[in-house]
Design a protein that fits this description.
About 70% of the residues lie in helices and about 0% in strands. It contains 2 helices and no strands. Helix 1 runs antiparallel to helix 2.
């Protein structure tokens, strides 16, 4: 998965969760989605099957 794909998924989940909860503070999540995606795909090299 590329960082662009992950950022899109983060944004989509954020919008869905905000809508379902009736919340209204979505700006912060949308603004850091790219940063989180790049960290998890390119820098941290996180693998779900090896969490340690």
């Amino acid at each position: 998965m590329t960082s662009e794909q992950l950022a899109w998924k983060i944004r989509r989940h954020a919008v869905e969760m905000t809508h379902l909860s009736g919340g209204s503070h979505i700006g912060a999540v949308l603004s850091v989605a790219d940063i989180i995606a790049v960290l998890y795909t390119d820098i941290l090299h996180y693998r779900a099957d090896e969490p340690n």
